[in-house]
Amino acid sequence: MLCLFVSVLLIIGVQRPTSVHGVPARGGDKKVVPKFTSHGQTFRAVIGDTLVLPCEVQDLGAFVILWRRGSAVLTADKIMVTRDERYRLVDGFNLEIGNVMPQDAGDYVCQIGDGDTRDQIHTVEILVPPSVRTSPANGQLTTRKGGTVTFECKASGNPVPTILWSRKDEPLPSGEKASEGFQITLEKVDRHQAGVYQCTASNGVGEPVTVDMQLDVLYAPEVEVERSWVHSGEGYEAQLVCIVHGEPQPSTVWYQDSFTLEPTERRTMDSRGNKHTLTIRNVQSRDFGNYSCVAENSLGKSRKYMELSGRPSPAQFRSPPYSTSKNSYNLTWLVESYPPLEEVRLLYRKLMLNDSYQQPGKWHDVVLQPSNGETFSHLMSYTIRNLESASVFEAIVQAKNRYGWNEVSDLYQFYTRGPGEHVYDFPADPNMKDMELIAPSSSSSHTFHLATTSFVLALFSSTALHLT
Ligand SMILES: *[C@@H]1O[C@H](CO)[C@@H](O)[C@H](O)[C@H]1NC(C)=O
Ligand SMILES: *[C@@H]1O[C@H](CO)[C@@H](O)[C@H](O)[C@H]1NC(C)=O
Ligand SMILES: *[C@@H]1O[C@H](CO)[C@@H](O)[C@H](O)[C@H]1NC(C)=O
Prior knowledge:
Blueprint: H1 2-12, E1 35-36, E2 42-46, E3 51-53, E4 57-58, E5 65-69, E6 72-76, E7 79-80, E8 87-90, E9 94-97, E10 106-112, E11 120-135, E12 140-144, E13 149-158, E14 162-167, E15 178-180, E16 183-186, E17 195-202, E18 209-225, E19 229-231, E20 238-247, E21 251-256, E22 259-260, E23 267-272, E24 275-280, E25 289-297, E26 300-309, E27 316-317, E28 329-336, E29 343-350, E30 364-368, E31 377-384, E32 392-401, E33 404-405, E34 412-415, H2 431-438, H3 446-467
Bound molecules: 2-acetamido-2-deoxy-beta-D-glucopyranose (3 copies).
The site of one 2-acetamido-2-deoxy-beta-D-glucopyranose (NAG) has 4 residues, from strand 28 and strand 31.
């Protein structure tokens, strides 16, 4: 009924029944024309907001104001045509829309039924905070090592949200902190890529939405040993450590040679996270030997060996590689041994120095009287004399106790000063640390030695020059 009435009003360019068309203006017979004092605007509202669309008219006279949305009439004069109770007229003919919804977006027309004045049009945009749909829907992916996985986040909202991928507490496998796009693909995954990935959708409306996605990577066990050579002595305690990774969680078993080890009074095995420790108390000579830990899960098996030994540890060199002298060098090293050392040998030789002559010299063999102090750590030193100046040497130290000779130490390089260089003891020189890093501790490559040596010597000379 009401609609019909309004349609009629619309068609005939309505007048109030009580008024006359064209109210006379102050003096004169000019007709007063109604005029909008508000302007057509664009309104942005977040869902749930209350919105007021102005429609202010001067000199309305007898005309009627209509609010339309498309062809649907919402109000006619003071009559609510729409049944939607969220609409109200406030302060005259301003249209209030309560609890706005996405479907309220669109153009709203305020019309003066004079058939003359142009309509006033407001555009309403509804801002919708982001929401996210993920694939897989439960946010959980499991794959085998080496596989490729894709997580997806589809976001809706207005404006269209942007999606950023990140990883909880660490950078993405690509090294980036975050990457944009509705999906993220991880290739050749391994255990380092497992964990929680997050997609965050934001569009400036409300709070960004973050969804956690979990990647589980299944892989055969990977075993590392903390030390492949462990030193101990009879009556002392020894600890052997294996680090085991694997998914599903592997079982780990300890072996001595080919025999499975069970806990005993002297022997315990414990695991903390990935770390598996075999502790042997009151070590006996039969405990020395070859140990291994074997980790196994449904995807495979892995084993790593280590040796528990009573022999002295390989020598660790402690003297700085640069002599303070032109023709001697005080070599200092540390050897660990529980039983007393029986014999210590030092071998050294000159290395090549210039481009035309690259052959190392003959080995010099020095047999030393071991110093046996109170501790298991044997700090020893020997001053090598009659060395050529401005030269490079390498040294090896071997030590023997009642269990035998130790593993041969790494080759250690040291340098004598050149002629004209001032003798200067500069342990506090900050360059010293850099130099020590430059010096290789083992003789792996001939050419590498040459290059490093000249470089180090150059540094050395320039430091010395600088001091004069
Ligand atoms: C232990 O024994 C295995 C098998 O005989 C061998 O391959 C490995 O090198 C040994 N490891 C050590 C640390 O002695
Ligand atoms: C060699 O160096 C060690 C350790 O710094 C020191 O104890 C020893 O006295 C030095 N020997 C000589 C002959 O300077
Ligand atoms: C290179 O070193 C060798 C051995 O020390 C020496 O005989 C030779 O003269 C040196 N050559 C040059 C170009 O310094």
